[in-house]
Design a protein that fits this description.
This protein is α/β, with parallel strands linked by helices and 271 residues long. The protein has one domain: TIM Barrel, CATH 3.20.20.100. It is built from ten helices and ten strands. Strand 5, helix 3 and strand 6 form a beta-alpha-beta unit. Helix 1 packs across helix 2. The chain starts with 5 loop residues before the first strand and ends in a 16-residue tail after the last helix. The structure holds NADP nicotinamide-adenine-dinucleotide phosphate. NADP nicotinamide-adenine-dinucleotide phosphate binds next to helix 9.
């Protein structure tokens, strides 16, 4: 069992690689979670919307791991952001996951019809009751993130981020404000392997393009990654990324991916 490094965010340690669980359900989800924990994963990402918290909870239970050794994240759906519903949803999340607390709860997507202070106020109450340790946002634009930071003590922003998508503005904000920036879809759902530049870097190091993408991400301050897999070989591969280093030539190759490949930051504020 390998030990996954951590990053310190606001005096809290967070494992730099977590398991993403979107579209995992039933036994496949339960087994992926349990296999990941056996391999050394200590960070799991789920959401109310994934409708798999029960399976994630069972997968955790199967391993017998001490709860405090895990960093567990869930998210509240954008239609559920009024104060009472946020509280009800998190209580339901805790029950489904069979846990007394969540390490992190994110607002999954912004909702332009509900003022931000409402869900953030509810999350503060949940934090005061020690049902959640930290809270944050996901799929927020830089402007919305600024607004959130002005209202409450945000711990994290989760956005799509990988070598094919520029997120400089959000990344710089995360680094300036000591926020965990969790990269979702860090493998671009498999697309990182389509590009010669990433394949060449991988070949040079005897690694796969997926491993190169993950290493490129976690080498950036404040960034953690949550690749999804239910394949035991992939689960292992995605954490075996600490026995090589990307050098200047590698970084230049990745930075110079063709312009038509590098998408711009989508407008996250539009739901
Ligand atoms: N906040 C949000 O709005 C949001 C949105 C999207 C995702 N997320 C989170 O981020 C997680 C990851 O994102 P994602 O699932 O969209 O995409 P991803 O992690 O970039 O890619 C997952 C895909 O890559 C494959 N894969 C994983 N490791 C591999 C490897 N080593 N070699 C080859 N293929 C590999 C997986 O298949 P196998 O299962 O066969 O390995 C799966 O098809 C989600 O599960 C979810 O927890 C959050």
């Amino acid at each position: 069992m390998s030990k996954i490094p951590t990053k310190v965010i606001q005096d809290t340690t967070v494992p730099v690689i977590g398991l993403g669980t979107y579209e995992l359900e039933g036994d496949e989800c339960r087994e992926a979670v349990s296999e990941a924990i056996h391999l050394g994963y200590r960070h799991i990402d789920t959401a109310r919307m994934y409708e798999n918290e029960e399976d994630v909870g069972l997968g955790i239970l199967d391993t017998g791991i001490v709860r405090d050794d895990l960093f567990l994240t869930s998210k509240v759906w954008w239609e559920d952001l009024d104060e009472k519903t946020v509280i009800n949803e998190i209580e339901a999340s805790l029950e489904a996951l069979r846990t007394d607390y969540l390490d992190l709860v994110l607002i999954h997507w912004p909702n332009p019809d509900i003022p931000l202070y409402e869900p953030l106020g509810a999350l503060e109450m949940l934090q005061e009751s020690e049902l959640i340790r930290y809270f944050g946002v996901s799929n927020f634009s830089a402007d919305l993130l600024t607004e959130a930071i002005q209202i409450a003590s945000i711990f994290s922003i989760q956005v799509e981020y990988h070598p094919l998508l520029d997120q400089t503005e959000i990344l710089q904000m995360a680094q300036r404000h000591d926020l965990l920036m969790t990269s979702y879809s860090p493998l671009a759902r498999g697309d990182v392997a389509k590009y010669d530049a990433i394949r060449e870097v991988a070949k040079r190091h005897g690694k796969t393009p997926y491993q190169v993408a993950l290493r490129w991400l976690i080498d950036q301050p404040k960034v953690a990654v949550i690749p999804k897999s239910s394949d035991p070989t992939h689960l292992r591969e995605n954490i075996e990324i600490f026995d090589f280093e990307l050098d200047g030539d590698d970084l230049a190759k990745i930075a110079n991916l063709p312009g038509d490949v590098k998408k711009v930051n989508p407008d996250f504020a539009t739901v």
